[in-house]
Design brief:
alpha+beta, 7 strands, single chain, seven-stranded antiparallel β-sheet, 21% helix
């Protein structure tokens, strides 16, 4: 396993790039936990909290309708690893593209690499969130609880 490889996950859906873009920005509907703040405006900041296990604050640094969403993690506190701020200064990116009438979504958490203590648990959580909850939200209008 490449210790420097950023975590990535991809899905393909029968929805338009605009629908996928809008779904990503409705974070509360697919990312379980307590979310505070605006999740759909450039330079807005929102925080995510899951019990006393995970806290992170994201700043929306890029929004390209139908193409891309990028969040910079400005603060993090992961209680289950020795270095609680492993996510701080990492970037979460959603790339949207079209192919043969379908829309591809590629999720990458830049900086979430196998060298991180939280990589196993965090990548597993992201995989479930993208493959199950976000996929369900995009295709049916309803996210699923994966935790």
């Amino acid at each position: 396993m490449n210790k420097n490889k950023d975590f990535t996950s991809s899905i393909q859906v029968d929805k338009s790039p605009a629908e996928v873009f809008n779904a990503i920005n409705n974070v509360r509907d697919w990312w379980q936990g307590e979310i505070t703040g605006k999740t759909d405006k450039l330079n807005a900041e929102f925080s995510y909290k899951m019990n006393d296990v995970h806290f992170s604050k994201q700043k929306i640094v890029e929004l390209v309708p139908g193409k891309k969403v990028v969040w910079l993690v400005t603060e993090s506190n992961l209680s289950f690893v020795a270095r609680h701020d492993e996510w701080t200064n990492t970037t979460i990116q959603f790339d949207i593209s079209s192919e043969n009438g379908k829309t591809n979504l590629t999720f990458t958490h830049y900086g979430l690499v196998p060298a991180f203590e939280c990589y196993g648990g965090c990548s597993g959580a992201w995989e479930s969130l993208i493959q199950k909850s976000l996929f369900s939200y995009i295709t049916t209008g309803k996210g699923v609880n994966v935790f």
